[in-house]
Amino acid sequence: MGLSVTQVSPGAATMMLRSSPWLDLGAAMDSLILGEVALSTAVLTGAPAGTDVRTASLSVTLFRAASLDANLIAHARTLTSAPRFTFAEVAIEDDRGRAVARVTGAALVQPRDPPPPAAPPLGPVDEPTYSTPDPPLRPLSAGVQGVPVDYWERFDGMTVVQKLAGPEAPPLFRMLGLGDGDVDEGQYKGATLPATEWFCYHGREIAPGVMAVAMYIAATGASHTLSGVGFRPGALNMSYSFLRPVVPDGRTLVIGGRATEQHEDLVLASATVTDGEGRRLATLHETALILPVGSGRSQRPSRCWPPSCSPTWSIPPLG
Secondary structure of 5-38 in the HEC alphabet? Predict the structure, then answer.
């Protein structure tokens, strides 16, 4: 995914995510991947030998959209530890020093069973070289295009999500191997994600940050279906729980999202990742705000969800 560690010390880690044409859907997805890896890496620096570190929960707050040409930098540090978990936070900024997101979360720290053998002495490691760039640094493949900037001024949310979930999948969907989802009003379900070793980092487990991105796509996509022309949802806060480790056994993971409630501009949505046996692996609860885009600033949404509800309040107009 273009991640690199730039500095580590006991209880702290700094990481960078390089800009890429494959990461074209904004700060949320970039921050989820970068924030989760940085958080677990900071916890790992203080973990005893012979232990596993696995992210169990994340809370993500977004501050601004990231420029496509800007690298993102994550500063992670641990806050407090208990015998079985460590709580940590991550501040994410772009390479111009602007705050992009804040991530907090807990990581489980558990002894490996059976214990691993003693570590060999550490020494210099030569960085490998390859004949081709890392996947995120390659140019877009033929037939893969970024999302047109005027999509949200030309189509309503339902149409946008149907296009992106199907024939006009954006670069990030292609890089993740995200399968087409079924889109209906207030729902984005049946999308698939391969359980591949490409999505592992600390060990042979799928990175929670990758599942977080897939759930964000499903939850925000479900909210998006409720917005009209000139509007799109912006996630205010996302709360994740990762229930089970997921091994890269090649099976297909299923992602589904739905809008659970809407009052005027505010939408609540949830998403899950399940395996082929229907077991729930991870969950997301998201709060999003329907925001005007471009010329949509002169209009206001006026509806609630489910259709049987009645609006109870409205936040003040923006700007």
Answer: EEEEECCEEEEEECCCCCCCCCHHHHHHHHHHHH
